[in-house]
Amino acid sequence: MPLQIIVGTQWGDEGKGRIVDWFAANSDVVARYNGGDNAGHSVTVGSKLFKLHLIPSGIINPKPIAILGNGMVINPKSMLDEMEMLIAAGVEVDPKRLRISHAAHLITPAHQALDKAMEVARGKGNIGTTGRGIGPAYTDKASRRGLRVANMLEANFSEELTIRIEEANRQLKLLGAEELNAKSIVADYEKYQQWMLPYIADTSLELHLALKAGQTVLAEGAQGTLLDIDHGTYPFVTSSATIASGVFTGLGIGISGTGGMEVTGVCKSFQTRVGSGPFPTEVFDDLALQLRGSGANPWDEYGTTTGRARRVGWLDGVLLRYAVRINGLTELVITKMDILSGFETLKLCVAYKKDGKILEDLPFGPSNLDDCEPVYEELPGWSEDIGGIRKWAELPKAAEGYLEAIARLAEVPVRLASVGPEREQIVSAK
Ligand code: GDP
Ligand code: IMO
Ligand code: MG
User: Fold this and answer.
1) Closest-approaching ligand to the CA atom of 242
2) pLDDT digits (tens, 9 = 90+) for 345-390
3) Domain check: are 285 and 386 in the same one?
4) What span, in angstroms and rounded, lies between the C-alpha atoms of 58 and 388?
5) Does 52 contact ligand 2 (Cβ within 6 A)?
6) Ligand 1: which atom is nearest the Cα of residue 339?
7) Most buried one in 84, 227, 297, 421, CB count within 10 A?
8) Is the domain of 343 the same as that of 392?
9) CB contact burial 191-227 (16+ within 10 A = b; e otherwise)
10) Which distant-in-sequence residues (6+ apart) come within 8 Å of 53 by Cβ?
11) 105 is catalytic
């Protein structure tokens, strides 16, 4: 398909990065359309573990070029650190392979300081943000006072940045937080400015030309459907359009001009969430430890960006069906199937019980999940280690049955199942 969209169906960390890496081998361009360095996408290739926050995971494969779209908010320091990490690992990163939209917004230390100060001010009602300045940067964008990457091309960039930091200092003072030194921030950003200039491009035009020339574009989502600013578990969400339709605004691609698309939902075989907010199928104690892992393995459920232990639970089919609808998913990829080995029975939430009624759809979307009690279907588990399996027919019958139950519930086919974090640990249904 000319355009393939990879989107998380849950609250992020579904394994999007490793799935993008899988599809990147057949893509000409890989583009991120939303978020910033709040994302943490892990890709394991042999003995190397890449943790990417800003640069699309597809860059690890030598084939595609990588684009950071206008829908993103970019912290230049994180960007520079990530480029250095990739270059040190032998990945080709230069202005021919990496393009940054002129219309993406810049994150500054003032956004990060405001993010943290606002979380403190929220007290018990905090969102549990990543502290990367995402909310304040998108706030500036929406209130039309943000600095865009293109501002770096202007002679007055330093003055404009100084004005923004001084403005933020007034807000920080009101919040009782420490003020920032504008001069040293500007000195740092003048260095980033020099280094970023050759990468700045009209990425919307480049994507248009790529699609027109018959190239394939892979759009890499960050966060997940349930963290979408409009359609997620508001207010416990991020500040960007994480869902598939965010691709069109976040990359500047015309909806009807793509020549066809696949919308691939990446879904973990169980549910996880970092930070605050509702989670109807959450589990605790020993069961939670079994799903989360102790932290000894790099794939255990501890945040790639913040290191926080992720909350865990059974797969929520009501929310999955919602993700299918809101994204227009055409297929699913189920990750972390290997983690379910060893459970005697697996629970799959097929509906909610609320006020004595059985609900298969959400009354007001996922923002009101209060008092929704999961109704579970129980399925047999399997005990075999499935990490070495590469053929669908060789999966234990119970694992196949679990995948079939998900496909039935979601009403879209499961195309791939991943059975370990390594690049090749994938089983294809086609
Ligand atoms: P993303 O944010 O959606 O890209 O996901 P993360 O990279 O934050 O989290 C997914 C974690 O699970 C990473 O540590 C991956 O290496 C790991 N992972 C992905 N797929 C599998 C899988 O099938 N099995 C196991 N054990 N780990 C996986
Ligand atoms: P990837 O791309 C999981 C969560 C935070 C918090 C909420 C708002 O790796 O799937 P923010 O810093 O964005 O304002 O935080 O969103 N969050 C994520 N959770 N994976 C992510 O990204 C996330 N990015 C943000 O934990 O609850
Ligand atoms: Mg992640």
Assistant:
1) 2
2) 999 999 999 999 999 988 789 988 989 999 999 999 999 999 999 9
3) yes
4) 24
5) no
6) 26
7) 227
8) yes
9) ebbeebeebbbbbbebbbebbeeeebbbbbbbbbbbb
10) 36, 37, 38, 39, 40, 41, 78, 82, 305
11) no
Residue nearest to atom 5 of ligand 2 (CA): 129
b or e along 106-144 (b: 16 or more beta carbons within 10 Å of the residue's beta carbon)?
bbbbbbbbbbbbbbeeeeeeebbbbebbbbbbbbbbeee
Note whether 351 and 389 are same-domain residues.
yes
pTM across the whole model: 0.98
pLDDT tens, position by position, 390-399: 999 999 999 9
Is residue 148 within 6 Å of ligand 1 at its C-beta? no
Q: Is any ligand 2 atom within 6 A of the Cβ of residue 272?
A: no
Query: Do residues 312 and 420 share a domain?
Result: yes
Give the closest ligand to the alpha carbon of residue 306.
2
41 assigned to active site? yes
DSSP structural state of residue 402: H
Ligand 2 pocket check for 128: Cβ under 6 Å: yes
Q: 391: domain range?
A: 268-428
d(CA 423, CA 150): 36
> Which residue, of 178, 196, 214, is where some domain finishes?
196
134 C-beta closer than 6 A to ligand 2: yes
Closest ligand 1 atom to residue 44 Cα is 16
As a whole number of Å, the CA-based R_g of the chain is 21
